[in-house]
Amino acid sequence: MKKMMAYSPYILFLSLFPLFTASFSIDYKSYSSELLSLANKDKDWLVSVRRQIHENPELCFEEYNTSALIRRELDRIGISYSFPFAKTGVVAQIGSGSGPIVALRADMDALPLQELVEWEHKSKIDGKMHGCGHDAHVTMLLGAAKLLHQRRDNLKGSVRLLFQPAEEGGAGAFHMLKEGALGDAEAIFAMHIDPQSPTGTISSHPGPTLAAVCFFQAKIEGQGGHAAEPHCNIDPIVTASFAILALQQLISREADPLHSQVVSVTYIRGGSALNVIPPSVEFGGTLRSLTTEGLDQLRRRVKEVIEGQANVHRCKAFVDMKDDAYPSYPAVVNDESLHRHVQKVGGFLLGPSNVKPGKKVMAGEDFAFYQQVIPGVMLSIGIRNEEVGSVHSPHSPHFFLDEDVLPIGAALHTALSEIYLNEHHSSVDGMDLTT
Ligand code: NI
């Protein structure tokens, strides 16, 4: 926790924001130190909550026990909530009920992955694992719930806490939205653990940050027969090969080189004998773009190219964008002004040198659905700690979490929302957070 309590660069940081400090008579040094110390007092509770969730991972839309645990903890703290949203989702609200309302979001689902880390609190369910840190996301938001509840008398508005299912491909956020989970929230924050950055640091990137994503499958139908008589058959293998090669040109020849896009064909399946031309071939993969419009264009062209190639080679093509099983995700576009808020609040809480520039990544996040409705920021919170083995990337069976992040994330969620409300409530008087 040393990193959290280091304030030497803090004074320098304050001097970078004279306008902010002049407008609000808040002693942020005391504010941060009080908040971090409160969060650290909860560390044993946070670790035990996280371990319970880690031991009992649940996949997309099946987070019944996780959801029950969240509701049990909210009951214990004394926070009211609504349930269910999108099957297992929970929405709690803290504060007066009046505006402004700011939302914080955590995802609850695990991965279909066998945990290969041998430790006391390893997943108890074969083939399922919290390998993306969503157990930590839930815990940090519960930690924030407790802190916000303790400090509710000073809140200048309301904080809405969204515990959502099915981030890993099920578009849980889309379904939460459809069922009104955002309410009247005007801004939203979420964080994702990041094993590339040390524990005690955060990073955030303004504008397009994570890709719009979809998946596709194609079936090429020809006419099978003896491999010795290709002229009597219609060869789907050669056709699929042309189609897959033609898809590569969508990025190299059609996409603006300054607009990041990806087309990856990830499997191809067809044929079973050395002397038989099969009747059909299937292949599929994923499309990515840092803009939602770019993904729409790619989707249209992938279909046209595969069908066109099939046509040239006398085959039929059936292209399925898998929208039912894997709804396409929009791009995560972080709001510029909320991004500055994250930098500022992170600087106060963790020290300015622990707030790093974020990176653009071609992975997807259904947090983007909320950002289509209200401004939001998805930030990264560091968990890298070689001493405890917290170095593996998310979705690795060796993924291991530095639990020191839990109080940091709880305090950060709390500060992001408290300071946002303080700056956006309509009254002219500032909140005295030091009392
Ligand atoms: Ni994740």
Describe this structure as you would to a colleague.
The chain is α/β, with parallel strands linked by helices. Helix content is 37%, strand content 23%. The protein contains 13 helices and 16 strands. It has helices spanning 2-5, 10-16, 18-23, 28-41, 43-55, 64-77, 134-150, 172-178, 236-254, 292-312, 336-350, 367-371, 405-424; strands at residues 81-85, 89-95, 101-107, 158-164, 187-198, 202-204, 207-210, 212-221, 225-226, 261-269, 276-277, 280-289, 316-320, 332-334, 355-357, 376-384. The strands form four sheets. The chain has an eight-stranded mixed beta sheet with strand order 1-2-4-3-5-16-6-15, sandwiched between helices. Strands 10-12-8-13 form a four-stranded antiparallel beta sheet, with helices on one face. The longest helix has 21 residues, at 292-312. The radius of gyration is 25 Å and the shape is elongated. Residues 132, 134, 167, 192, 394 line the site of nickel (II) ion (NI).
Gap between N and C termini: 24 Å
Helix content: 25-40%
**What sort of overall outline do the alpha carbons produce when their principal axes are compared?**
elongated
- Structural classification: alpha/beta
On the 0-100 scale, what is the average pLDDT?
92
Q: What is the compact description of this entry?
A:
With 435 residues, this protein is α/β, with parallel strands linked by helices.
Q: Layout of SSEs?
A:
Blueprint lengths: L1 H4 L4 H7 L1 H6 L4 H14 L1 H13 L8 H14 L3 E5 L3 E7 L5 E7 L26 H17 L7 E7 L7 H7 L8 E12 L3 E3 L2 E4 L1 E10 L3 E2 L9 H19 L6 E9 L6 E2 L2 E10 L2 H21 L3 E5 L11 E3 L1 H15 L4 E3 L9 H5 L4 E9 L20 H20 L11
Helix pairs in contact: 4-13, 5-7, 6-7, 7-13, 9-10, 11-13
The structure holds nickel (II) ion (NI).
